Amino acid sequence: MSKKPSDAAVRWLNVDEERAWRAFRRMMIAVQSGTARDLTMVGLSDPDYEVLSTLSERPGRTSTLREQALKMGWSRSRLSRHATRMEARGLIQRAPDPADGRGCYLVLTEQGLDTLENAAPAHVESVRRHFVDRLTLEDLAALERIARKLEGTAET
């Protein structure tokens, strides 16, 4: 990117920083698109799997719409529209949230749990193929350290 004289206050990326940023972006796109493509083979989208797996790990297989939206980095309205589609497929159901008149609980149905249990082996294989098995233990440890440094930096 060319620098304009009026941009003197901007901390432009140097060559190494830009190369690292672009490599990070390519890595994220490659892993996410690969695992998302594989999930479609079992009839789920990446967001479907995220909702189902999160609910399966929660007490009572329940989460508020607000909590789930925050976890996914989505707006409540975006997740609400997605939840409507998942509910129509019988994967989740909604229940009123007495603490938030505008919110609701997302509840994993038995069909949703069965769907998740059937999809999980293929998803784990996909994660291995596109991510884990391509890296050494040292690589994985370094990525974990980096991820901890970057967690919570996104605006919500």
From TrEMBL:
GO terms for molecular function: DNA binding; DNA-binding transcription factor activity. One of its GO terms (biological process) is response to stress. Coiled coil: none annotated. Residues 17-152 form the HTH marR-type domain. Keywords: DNA-binding. InterPro entries: HTH_MarR-typ, MarR/SlyA-like, WH-like_DNA-bd_sf, WH_DNA-bd_sf. It holds the Pfam family MarR_2. SUPFAM superfamilies: Winged helix' DNA-binding domain. PANTHER family: MARR FAMILY REGULATORY PROTEIN, TRANSCRIPTIONAL REGULATOR, MARR FAMILY. This is DNA-binding transcriptional regulator, MarR family.
